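Consider the tokenized backbone below.
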């Protein structure tokens, strides 16, 4: 490394990727079933879409026909070339798990099948984290509407050519394009380009969060006093793993939220999101 003609930042990036790779290999060695089974075992009970609805959503995602251009661009590039950048992989994975609410295992399988650089350990680790069931949980949800990774729109125009004549301002949200613009460019949503597979992203995301909370409430034995998940290691011991704030529950099943009146960063909390809990309980009673 010292003799390489690389900048300090490039060297740092290279080392970070080596560490990331070795972390993934260590995880697969420790949890040999992680390609299809949640490391946080209780997350196997998370509710995902199933049946015909799962098939409808998954097929649209796999073939780049979701109606969300940045997602479709990535998935089309993936199938045609066997590759896409890390940021687009994260957009596609986040969209499948957070908004389409399809089990992360399905995405993991498709990426492993299509990626020319597929790595059993790295791919599984990314999808476990995207599905919230890995050693880590992503602390972000990537918007398929803002598509900040393709601010110029050039990437999307390349892989979704049926929208290439749209202005930059609406390339990632063609449903917001003026009717006159769509007519002028010969774009008919639902015919020349798909309608959105799901329209209310906020609602889909809320359901996603609700289902995780519902699962965690029924698995309190895997929840410590600070609301973090506990996992069982191969030797039988339990350890704490990072858990995103929106999923941390107290012993009563209420979400921990830092109080706005707290001072100096001291862990004062208040109970919140009672509506989410009530919706979850109502859904459980219907089953």
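A designed sequence for it:
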């Amino acid at each position: 490394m010292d003799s390489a003609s690389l900048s300090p930042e490039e060297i740092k990036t290279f080392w970070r990727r080596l560490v990331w790779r070795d972390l993934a290999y260590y995880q697969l060695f420790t949890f040999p079933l992680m390609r299809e089974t949640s490391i946080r075992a209780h997350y196997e009970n998370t509710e995902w879409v199933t049946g015909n609805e799962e098939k409808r959503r998954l097929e649209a995602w796999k073939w780049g026909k979701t109606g969300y251009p940045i997602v479709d661009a990535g998935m089309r590039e993936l199938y045609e070339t066997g590759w896409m950048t890390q940021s687009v992989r994260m957009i596609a994975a986040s969209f499948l798990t957070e908004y389409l609410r399809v089990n992360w295992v399905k995405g993991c399988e498709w990426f492993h099948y299509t990626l020319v650089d597929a790595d059993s350990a790295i791919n599984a680790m990314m999808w476990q984290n995207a599905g919230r069931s890995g050693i880590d949980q992503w602390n972000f949800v990537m918007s398929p509407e803002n598509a900040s990774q393709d601010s110029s729109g050039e990437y999307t125009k390349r892989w979704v050519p049926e929208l290439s004549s749209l202005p930059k301002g609406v390339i990632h949200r063609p449903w917001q394009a003026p009717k006159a613009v769509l007519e002028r460019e010969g774009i008919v949503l639902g015919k020349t380009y798909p309608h959105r597979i799901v329209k209310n992203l906020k609602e889909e995301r809320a359901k996603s969060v609700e289902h995780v909370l519902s699962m965690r409430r029924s698995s309190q034995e895997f929840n410590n006093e600070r609301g973090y998940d506990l996992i069982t290691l191969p030797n039988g011991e339990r350890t704490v793993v990072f858990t995103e704030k929106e999923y941390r529950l107290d012993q009563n099943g209420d979400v921990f939220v830092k109080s706005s009146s707290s001072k100096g960063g001291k862990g004062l909390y208040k109970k919140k999101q009672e509506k989410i809990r009530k919706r979850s309980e109502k859904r459980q009673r219907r089953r």
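The longest strand covers residues 229-232.
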